[in-house]
Amino acid sequence: IWLKGSMLQGLPLLAHSDSDRSGKAATRAMVPRRALRLSAVVFSTAWMAVASIPPQVSTAEAAQCPREDAAAAGGSAGCEADETSAMQKHVRKLDEEGPCPDMHRKTCKHCFRMLGIGDMGSTSVGEAHFQPIVAQSLAEVARAYDPRIILGLGDNIYPVGSEEDDYSDIVERWYDVYINGTESLQKPWYFIAGNHDYYTNGSCQREISFTHDPLNKGNHWQFPFCYYVQNFMSNGLSIDIFFIDMEMVVKDEFLWTYPNPNCDPAMQDAWFEMSLQASTADWKLVVGHIPFFTTGAHSSAYYEYALVRRYAGLMQQYGVSMYFNGHNHNQEVIVKDDIYWVTAGNGAKQYLDDQYVKNHPDGWEAYEANGKEYFIYEDFYGCQRNDDLAVLESDSKMFACAGGFMGLTILSEKKAELVMYDHEGKTKKGWTFQVPNRAPLAPGSMDYKLAPMASLPSPREPVTCGGQKLKGFLCGNQTQCAASRSCCTFASSGVSCKGFCEAAALICELALHNADAGDDNCGGSAKACGDTPASGEGVVCTCKAQ
Description:
Strand content: 15-25%
Structural class: alpha/beta
Strand order of the largest sheet: 7-6-5-4-17-18-19
Distance between the termini: 58 Å
Number of helices: 12
Helix content: 10-25%
Largest sheet: 7 strands, mixed
């Protein structure tokens, strides 16, 4: 039964469900070069039935693989078996000193596997942009990994979401990049909206509607509603994956610029708690766009928004083991309160410390795809970090920003394996995690680690200029703003800095324009405050009190 989002009265659908790399090094000019050739284009079909709630209806085939005892018996021997391509051999030997991520491939070949990638919908070319490079590696890993599904972690279409009623931008920036001609990625992709998917009026609903459009060849794009739950069965285990719209949780005017009128934040709040409470799945996973905890460029939403802390408490209470997000253009695994908080927003861009990069230009690496050149900064110390690093450093188990994605295998009712991959489809020591499952806490349990709302610390005060909170993305931190007595704030394309600052009763002090409105950075070329940016340009405005 196919239903439109407007018919749901706020409740979500439950959807059921070669290229080669050249190793030759060219002559060194500014940076070393590697050549990549992206393959030609074909597509295949997949099916997906859509029904309404309740969330316990299964999508997948029944299990045959044994559970914990038999899976463990496979040991590392599975790494030596069934070797085919060099990429598959590499996947089986991801971490020489750690557990082999494919150690159960032979004894548990029907285990539930998925890949996840966020902030990937950009076709921009140049420094810190690399969508086709990561897409190539995602396809190579998928050939060996054989994921059941792929998660789209938001910011699906840059720079301002889907603008075209004919869905041509979705076809160009997703289908043609990932699906067309890439058999290994022709799986169900389950999406959630990111903030950039709300930057054009109607964009979020267009992305939802594309799910049922004939242009969605093979039905690989699956985005049934703003929030929804997917249930899978594999190896006798049930997995519930809850997709939540974090823009509706934080309700920030910049992150949620054009809300979808079919989606009610209050309904999502009630649905999330009731659905978690009702779930009897062996594994509960949650997917959103904005990170609860992070040390990347954007700060941790947990410390800034009371409702985010409430959502974290529900996840703790009802036995959620992992949360997957994008938003920050990096990869990170934080383990806090027994939950794995996984950022994989490095699908097309990276956030960099401009000063460090300027002083260390040798960190750039050049790649070629489709006759175009893409530059990735591979020096870890060039990654942009936020002030939460001081609080979360011991909880952050891995961090990188040079492009990549994540993979997850449910090994048994007690254990899963999480692997982080870089832009070349490689993993490194310390990038593989054995994730224990979590049981729900008993009602009224004193083990409830996240304090009740009343006793939580107050969220950070918003940074202001002249007592006015700006409507926009804060680029600088509080220390920088206090020192300069101004705020560096990102403004959407099409708005002059003069108008932007005056709307907050402030004066424009500096205007910068950059090439991509989707960059969310504080860089650019100096312009007059009254200059209106060209189509697709980003603007950074520094405002001061009158």
